[in-house]
Amino acid sequence: MSQKGSDPNWLQLAPFAQFIYKTMTRKIRSASDSGIYHVILRGVNRQDIFENEKDFLKFLSLMERLTSPVDETGRQIPPLLVIFAYCLMPNHVHLLVRERPGSLISDAIKWISGTYAGYFNLKYEHVGHLFQDRFRSEVVNDWEYFLTLMRYIHQNPVAGGLVNDVRHYRWSSWREYDPKMVCDIPMCATKSVFAKISFDALEELVNTPLPKTQRIMDFDSDTGHRVSDDRLREYIKAEFGMAEVSEVQHLEKTKRNEIIKRLLEFCRNVLQISRVTGISRGVIRRLDK
Question: Which of 94, 113, 229, 271 has the smallest number of CB atoms closer than 10 Å to its CB?
Fold first, then answer.
């Protein structure tokens, strides 16, 4: 996969790019010979980091700013990060990316996560960390594993029970690869991938589930904590002896809070619990700390 463009003049970059350049002080834990990494960002305590369409689009716009940056005059400059694939799940993010010369992956991810966290905390009056610790990463030094990650990342919403087909998930990069689909914010280096594999071959590969024995870096079984709204309703009624889920709203405060804490242990999804019970997200978040 060839790299294009020369190193930018960092002194002329827009403020967000200057931030990346000035903070290049901490090296990635493991260096990739190819410069390619699989990166995961996850919400602290598995909390949702995207609550609606605008949140997903905001994160995508930040990613796009790194792939198509401009200087202070508005002139296009070489990418600070090359993105091959991504998937934005409700409480975590998968990226398949390559470092650019003169820019560390750690600083690019730090800028994205820090900027998005500022946006999220202001919008939802959230206090404290949004993302769990530092991001996790693994090196990708061969084509075979690159394709394995292309499958894994795009299959994440299917494995998590959010959709039944890779094509049906809006917030992954598969919409960029499939010529029959429309992508919200194009940013991936699809031509570099298609130079080595045809769309038909890639489509077949991506839609073939990975064997359960395939080992890939991930956070502690994120998908295992996701349940449907109907399953959550059934749990509430059966576990707490309620005829209707709405009864939770009318309970004495102490009893209500005990139930919410139990629900957080059951599904770890603030937005979903709020949606199903009618209890405000602010109340649930305070109990989730």
Answer: 229
